[in-house]
Design a protein that fits this description.
By secondary structure, the chain is of the alpha+beta class. Helices cover about 25% and strands about 30% of the residues. The chain is built from 4 helices and 4 strands, in the order ααααββββ. It has helices at about 45-60, 60-65, 70-75, 80-90, and strands at about 95-110, 120-130, 130-145, 150-155. A 4-stranded antiparallel beta sheet has the order 1-2-3-4. A hairpin with a 2-residue loop joins β2 and β3 (about 130-145). The radius of gyration is 14 Å and the shape is globular. About 40% of the residues are buried. Mean pLDDT is about 75; it is low at about 1-40.
């Protein structure tokens, strides 16, 4: 199954949300959890924002996440394909029984790599689903050129 996020070889993702809003940023109703403009972010705030995004996926609000996603993500995947693939990888696992964040990472990516340059962060969760053994969820965001963190991808392994 095709996964939609920036190449997983970096093992990173970028995450942000209302918990990260140190400076007010405009919000779109379709994706309230994904924007914050802040020069330096607390790992706990990143983890909380990643949790909000994972919970939006739990609620099948994937289309809303894509609507407010980073332009980088939108270049990699069309809306319908993105929604179908994220839902297809997540729905069969059933309801979340327990989710705990394990790792928060930030990384500056330089020009010339597999993914566009920029500041990225990741939140990795250890998640137990009702119908499956424990899995790892990876929520990604990118700090776009306007300084706003936006959803960039999701993978469950």
């Amino acid at each position: 199954m095709k996964r939609f996020m920036l190449p997983a070889a970096l093992t990173l993702c970028v995450v942000a949300g209302p918990a990260l809003a140190q400076t007010p940023a405009p919000r779109t109703p379709a994706a309230p959890q994904q924007q914050a403009a802040a020069p330096d972010l607390d790992p706990n705030a990143l983890a909380n924002a990643g949790l909000q995004i994972a919970q939006a996926i739990d609620r099948d609000q994937i289309a809303g996440l894509w609507e407010g996603a980073s332009a980088v993500t939108k270049r990699f995947a069309k809306r319908e394909e993105f929604v179908a693939n994220v839902a297809g990888s997540r729905k069969p696992l059933g309801a979340v029984v327990e989710r705990n964040w394990m790792v928060v990472r930030r990384q500056q990516v330089a020009d010339g790599g597999q993914i566009p340059s920029g500041l990225y962060a990741s939140v990795e969760f250890a998640t137990r689903f009702r119908t499956d053994p424990p899995r790892t969820e990876l929520v990604s965001m990118r700090r776009d050129e306007d300084g706003t963190w936006r959803f960039a991808g999701y993978v469950v392994r």
